[in-house]
Amino acid sequence: MTGLRALRFAWLTIVRQPARSVLGILGVAAVGALLFDMLLLSRGLVLSFRTLLDAGGFDARVLATDMVPFSGPRLDHASTLAAAIRALPEVAAVQQVRTVRATAGDRSVASAMGVDDGEDDGEIEIVGTDIHVHPVWTIAEGRDVAEDPANGLVINRHLAETLGAKPGSKVTLRGRCGDEASMPPPVTFIVTGIATFPFDTPGDDTAGTSIASAARLCGERDADQADMLLVRSRDGVGADTAAAAIHARRPDLHIVTNAEIVDQFSRLQFSYFRQISSVLATVTLFFGFLLVAVLLTVSVNQHLGEIATLRAIGLTRARVVAGIFWESVVMVGTGGVLAVPIGFVVAAWLDRILRRLPGIPTGLHFFVFEPRALGLYVVLLSAAALAAAAYPMRIVAGLPIAGTLRQEVVS
Amino acid sequence: MTAPVVEARGVSRVFPMQAGAVTALADVSLRVSAGEYLSIVGPSGCGKSTLLHVLGCVDVPTAGALRFQDRDVATLPDAERSRLRLREIGFVFQRFFLLPMLTAWENVELPQAEAGIARAERRARTAELLDYVGLAARAGHRPSELSGGEMQRVAIARALANRPRLLLADEPTGELDQTTGGQVADLLDRLHGDGTAVVVVTHDAVMAERAPRLVHMRDGRIVEDSTR
Ligand SMILES: Nc1ncnc2c1ncn2[C@@H]1O[C@H](COP(=O)(O)OP(=O)(O)OP(=O)(O)O)[C@@H](O)[C@H]1O
Ligand SMILES: [Mg+2]
Fold first, then answer.
1. What residue numbers bound the domain in which B166 lies?
2. Mean pLDDT score of chain B, rounded to an integer?
3. Which residues of B are less than 8 Å from A309 in CB distance?
């Protein structure tokens, strides 16, 4: 009851000074939107990167060494190893991945003649996987490779456009493996579908096929090699336990969980964004605090007579102090709520700009929403509202009633 | 003799100032009984308003004691002192001090709402009070839409909202012409007739004469206290 009345009073104070209140609310909305965006930015890359890593539901990777994937030595006897790991009780699925670089049959001629455009070097990344296991790509159109195990190929949209290919088209690829001298013979595939690959960047030409077909592009018949194995831990077991089980069996291999990769990236590569967003969020919050504190202080100083009157007719000190607090809450609250949709729009806009940077995977975002960000936003704004109200609240708490009323008569 | 509503015992109020301390009240003792009607007069600056502020618990004496209904006000926490002002004391100021964003009705209703009076009772009381001061027709108007006399009558209605035992009026007619001032004074007479103790500070001799008890002040002291 008392709270409601205090809130109504705060509301009355706010609506009777429309210019000041609109200024305050708009200011908080602008500041809040920026703050909200900085919170989305601070963990956006990490969250979005994690989503890409988690594509297909695999939560750990097995490599031959701790070198960056696809640059180190391959895993030998990959299918045997995959089966052995798959047999572990902690593991639900294992996918083998072998990547090969290739060019389209007619493209090799073009690049040999030097008519290739700069950005697009005509090179295609072929991802070979076990077609009996959940794929790492997502089919957008047509069917998966399993449709045609021997010759099937899925291609990304960009490659489809480059080659003018669609499901059903024949595509001839030439592997670029090892030294240039040993040019393996070209292989002809049938496009079964169009797929999206998690780590594709906008200009990438990417294709997916069976691991055997990928090996065939390099002229290998029975190599049975993979660049890495993707492991999905059994439900309720967790990536760490699965990784430990694999390590116990094969201590010579390098096993990393998605969480570990994300952790490493967030400590190194992504830390700039976190630092920038922390600095900007702090500055933003400070401006919001300053704005509201100034507006409230000016308002309180303009209405000292009324506050003293309220005290004289019997309102307690706590009650008038709470009134200032509620005024701050209403102003910051209204601005803060307005800020969220504005924040989303601005975040989408900034995200589009940042994602134009070269080499950014299509699926990667800089600004990502998570409930935690909203929670933190509410906490930070509330703290700012409270801090902004602190000084005017002190003025009101220490206001001498008789002296102020006297002052009002004199002035 | 009836029990006192409020009693000042040897009260002093000194304002420490840069240019030297000002003694607004020096050893003032005054006892206001229930239902009493008294005027305080004296030259400007003699401490009338200061005494009224002390009696109304909005100012604290630097020496001496104030007892309100036999409780030592100095020992009361802010909440208790506020409760006294809310329920036992009504204030009427020369400058009215109505809340400008509230209507006449809301100004009168506010102290009742603050005191936790139920809505229906509040409505009846507010209507009754506005009727009492002759402003039933102006209930929905804000102070800026009222004349000085009307504002002062709303202020009186507000002061009476919680049926105080003591009404303190500091030059309530100071801003009003003779006719409107007379109306306000009539209202105070009527109030006293209804049993409220009334203390009026005034420069207006005619108004002061209305009260049976007259207190003269000079230089922060009571120099004469007579009852007719
Ligand atoms: N808050 C204050 N700070 C400093 N001095 C004060 C304060 N309140 C009152 N005084 C001083 O105390 C003295 C008495 O003031 P007070 O207002 O009580 O006089 P008054 O009798 O009501 O005068 P008036 O008839 O002009 O209203 C004056 O000298 C005044 O300057
Ligand atoms: Mg005075």
1. 6-227
2. 93
3. 97-99
Would you give the end-to-end CA distance of chain B in angstroms?
Answer: 16
Report yes or no on B111 lying in a domain: yes
Q: Is the dihedral of CA B162, B164, B170, B173 positive or negative?
A: positive
Q: How far is the CA of A195 from the centre of ligand 2 (A)?
A: 88
DSSP A197-212: -TT--TT--EEEEEHH
* Same-domain pairing of A158 and A134: yes
Provide the CATH number for the domain around residue B130.
3.40.50.300
For B114-154, the DSSP string reads: HTT--HHHHHHHHHHHHHHTT-GGGTT--GGGS-HHHHHHH
Q: Would you state the pLDDT for residue A112?
A: 43
Residues with CB under 6 A from ligand 1: A 403, 406; B 15, 17, 22, 24, 44-50
Q: Do the Cβ atoms of A313 and B110 come within 8 Å? A: yes
Does A275 share its domain with A182? Answer: no
Q: Which residues of B touch A402 (CB under 8 A)?
A: 50, 53, 58-59
**A226 to each of A67, A94, A247, B13, B82, how far by Cα in Å?**
14, 12, 18, 94, 82
Report how far residue B124's alpha carbon sits from residue B126's, in angstroms, rounded to the nearest whole number. 6
- As for the ipTM of the complex, it is 0.94
**For residue B145, is it within any domain?**
yes
Q: Which ligand is nearest to the CA of A401?
A: 1
Q: Which of A13, A310, A313, A396 to mutate to test the interface with B (most CBs of B within 10 A)?
A: A313
Q: Containing domain of residue A384, as a range?
A: 2-53+271-410
Q: Are residues A99 and A237 in the same domain?
A: yes
Please measure the distance between the N-terminal and C-terminal CA atoms of chain A and give it in whole angstroms: 36
pTM: 0.80
Structure confidence at residue A203 (pLDDT): 85
Instruction: Please tell me whether residues A45 and A188 are part of one structural domain.
Output: no
Residues A73 and A47 in one domain: no
Interface of A with B in 303-362 (CB under 8 A): 305-306, 309-319
pLDDT value for A3? 60
pLDDT digits (tens, 9 = 90+) for B39-72: 999 999 999 999 999 999 999 999 999 999 999 9
Q: B65: exposed, middle or buried (C-beta count within 10 Å: 0-12, 13-18, 19+)?
A: middle
Q: Are residues A92 and A45 in the same domain?
A: no
Query: Phi, psi (5° rounding) for residue B185?
Result: -65, -40
Pair A30, A106 in one domain = no
Closest CA to A259 of A92, A88, A53: A53
Q: How far apart are CA A178 and CA A172, in angstroms?
A: 20
**pLDDT tens for each residue of A208-251:** 999 999 999 988 877 788 999 999 999 988 999 999 999 999 99
